[in-house]
Amino acid sequence: MRLLAAICLVLMPAAVWAEEVVLGLSRDKISITTRFEGSDILIFGAVKREEPIPEGSELEVIVTVEGPSEPVMVRRKANRFGIWVNTDAVEVDAAPSFYAVASSGALGDVLKDIEDLRYKVSIPRAIRSVGAPMTIQDSESFTEALIRIRKANGLYQELDNTVAVDEQTLFRTSVRLPANLTEGDYRTRIFLLREGNVVADFDTTIDVRKVGLERWLFTLSRQQPLVYGLMSLAIAIAAGWGASAAFRMLRNG
Amino acid sequence: MLIYLPIAEVSVNAFLLLGLGGLVGVLSGMFGVGGGFLMTPLLFFIGIPPAVAVATEANQIVASSFSGVLAHLRRKTVDLKMGTVLLIGGLIGAALGVLVFNYLKALGQVDLLVRLCYVVFLGVIGSLMFVESLNAIRRSRKTAGAPAPRRKQRGWIHALPFKMRFRTSGLYISVIPPVLVGIAVGILAAIMGVGGGFIMVPAMIYLLGMPTKVVVGTSLFQIIFVTGFTTLLHATTNYTVDIVLAVLLLIGGVIGAQIGTQIGVKMKAEQLRILLAIMVLAVCGKLALDLLIMPAELYSLGSAGGGH
């Protein structure tokens, strides 16, 4: 009897939480062209399960989209000799260039703190900051400033109550990628939650790349900077000369 | 129509850039100045990263000065020998300027340096020009156009060694002052993203005593090479030259300059100068206020460890 109970205990979670994500993306590749004005991606999917819908708890869904992480230098101005000068600086070790977290309810309600810590879901958790110089006491305010500035630029988004969940099975949301996007692999994660615990997660990437002219110019400027510089001069001189010659011709009839 | 700038990595309205180029072009055509000192702060205001604005503006100045220098060469109003001496100083200055620029960028103070430079130089030049043109207007009202007596510079400048004859300018002076002027302008070109004509032209007239008719052509000649060199230095060390941005500004600028020249012909020189002085002071005032008033956001983000 004891053995049976133990087996039940071991099997129970698996039986109850046997839910899996089947995901669809409206696009898994985003091309930054010269005319790039930002992009909406629709993220949708279904919950696959072998058993009937577990009762007693509501299914919640969180979707995160995360751009490539980079170290960021956050600087603070202070008044020195009457003018505002950058004085203190804290280096944040890794901050995603873009981060959107959409959830089916308020993020704090649907996700337990311990799970947030484990999966690094909320914006402050997605930023990794190891330590500030000894001279700076309030290093949190630098991280807060980073979040505030990026939120204002549309690069960090907290989208509470934006994931629609139907019949505890179908879910969908859309995330707006702004025009000032950097390229890279955008990691997209989907979490299924019950009672604040993650019961299943799914990982995929959206490929964001400069293409065509943008790609070519960017690569050239990094790999052959001298050639790029000379080319810039040549193009600029030709364009300036051409435009003034055209204007002269136009005026002279 | 939004356009994504590949190096600046921001989307900007293409017509806004054409319009800015045009506006500054009109002013530069009217007043005969390069316009870099107006364009660079305007680029800051629309959200182009300062490093990209400075480097790209240098590229644009090369192009907009090029057609000007061709016209002056045809009229033989370029002192090539003096231009070359200024240029040697200019190249040294530009290299120094880029070094300082990169050093301060690593410290996070490049923004401050560029703004301070602007406030100081625009303030000084603007006030001098304002006072001078006010006096000129007052004089022309009083004496009905009697020409002001030209001061002949005699003194320490003529006592320096390494004298050289500059035939086109009709000068026999030491090469030290022109080289120093060149270095100063080169540093400014690299740090502020300006051609430096607004410093160079007064320096050539008042310090070196060059005849006015060769001053503009010679300074343009020198500016092309110095800003061209600056562009290459920024492109190879900072990767901050955005060719798409440069071309858009340029097209607007060239068309604007033609319109500006037409307007300039119809106005009196003193009126033009006083207008330019007011404008220079306005830009200076705006930049100074930004430094003095507590900013709404005390924090700013930068990439760690220099580089892009």
Structural summary, described in words:
The complex is a heterodimer of chains A (253) and B (308). Chain A is of the alpha+beta class and 253 residues long. Chain A has two domains: 19-209, Immunoglobulin-like (Sandwich); 211-253. Helices cover 33% and strands 40% of the residues of chain A. Chain A has seven helices and twelve strands. Chain A has helices spanning 2-16, 107-110, 113-119, 123-126, 139-152, 212-223, 225-252, and strands at residues 19-25, 29-32, 39-49, 59-66, 69-80, 83-96, 99-103, 156-159, 164-166, 170-177, 184-194, 197-210. Chain A has a six-stranded mixed sheet with strand order 2-12-11-4-7-8. The model of chain A is unreliable at 8-16 (pLDDT under 50). Chain B is mostly helical and 308 residues long. Chain B has one domain. In chain B, strand 1 (2-5) and strand 2 (10-13) form a beta hairpin. In chain B, helix 3 (50-74) packs antiparallel against helix 8 (212-237) and helix 6 (176-192) crosses helix 8. The longest helix of chain B is centred in the middle third of the chain and has 34 residues, at 110-143. The radius of gyration of chain B is 20 Å and the shape is globular. The model of chain B is unreliable at 145-150 (pLDDT under 50). Strand 5 of chain A pairs antiparallel with strand 5 of chain B, so a sheet runs across the interface.
